[in-house]
Design goal:
two-stranded antiparallel ribbon; alpha+beta; 282 residues; globular; eight-stranded mixed β-sheet
């Protein structure tokens, strides 16, 4: 069990304790939590205690604890090496898993936790690629990955889940290279004064105004958020820094149900077209 403790704006990610067993059982007994992820609802506090002593005692497994309480309401973790479960994953890759109790759905807590785990993977654990897998129909898990900048990679053949049924699992991927482009924006040259502040409209219907890319640091600071965090769509739509003229057929950031878009996802897509879609001069 790791002794690492991670703090985010609203969360403490800490190791699980045996004293958490009753709380874990209270939330994990709900089939709505475990069934979509492929694990059975807990049947007793004793079973929850056993899970804490075994599954949750692995390195890099954390209790998700909203501040200022000390009560866990979910779990998240980083899997590496033999615990990876897709043939497409390299030995030096990592995989992130997560769940949160039903009363805390829709509050953005798990994306915040995943952001912190991504930072740990890339900056502290030396990983260059991180994966998230989710079963077909588990849209909540998929949306978490999208909000954190992950992109679809592949779908595995149908196979038995831990519950014994046959399921199809989809995998999404995020690389350190794509994230570095977000963090290092302040190193990029700003828009030249001669370049016009023209507007273009992407296929999503969000109006995007080209600005100097060095302004991305100010955007993050304004939202008090880590590089992967999501921002309000209207704010991103008018303040996202870029020197690219958007092409409606090629620039398609995934719209999210709650009207937000992952900054990391947008910038990753923009970087792809940086050399071929610059703002035209007049």
């Amino acid at each position: 069990m790791s002794d690492t403790i991670i703090h985010t704006r609203r969360l403490t990610l800490r190791p699980w304790r045996e004293s958490d067993a009753e709380t874990l059982y209270r939330y994990a007994k709900d089939p709505a939590v475990g069934t979509p992820a492929g694990w059975p609802a807990h049947r007793s506090a004793a079973e929850s205690l056993d899970v804490i002593r075994t599954v949750f005692s692995a390195p890099e497994v954390y209790a998700v604890v909203p501040k200022p309480s000390d009560e866990p309401v979910g779990s998240c973790g980083i899997m590496t090496g033999d615990t990876l479960h897709s043939a497409c994953m390299g030995s030096d890759d990592a995989e992130i898993g997560y769940w949160i109790a039903v009363p805390y759905w829709g509050q953005g807590l798990i994306p915040e936790a995943v952001d912190a785990l991504l930072d740990r993977c890339f900056r502290h654990l030396g990983r260059t690629t991180v994966w998230i897998g989710y079963y077909d129909g588990n849209d909540k898990s998929r949306r978490v990955a999208e909000k954190c900048g992950f992109e679809y990679h592949h779908t595995a053949p149908p196979a038995p889940s831990p519950l014994g049924d046959i399921r199809t699992e989809h995998f999404m991927r995020l690389t350190k290279r794509s994230v570095t482009s977000v963090r290092d924006d302040d190193r990029r040259p700003p828009r030249r004064p001669s370049e016009p502040q023209t507007e273009a409209k992407a296929d999503t219907g969000i109006r995007l105004r080209p600005l100097g890319r060095d302004a991305v640091t100010d955007l993050r600071a304004e939202h008090d958020a880590p590089p992967f965090a999501r921002c309000d769509a209207a704010r991103v739509g008018y303040d996202l820094p870029t020197v690219i003229a958007f092409d409606a057929q090629q620039f398609r950031p995934p719209p999210l149900d709650n009207g937000t878009i992952a900054v990391g996802t947008i910038l990753h897509l923009l970087d792809r077209h940086l050399d071929t879609h610059r703002v035209p001069k007049h």
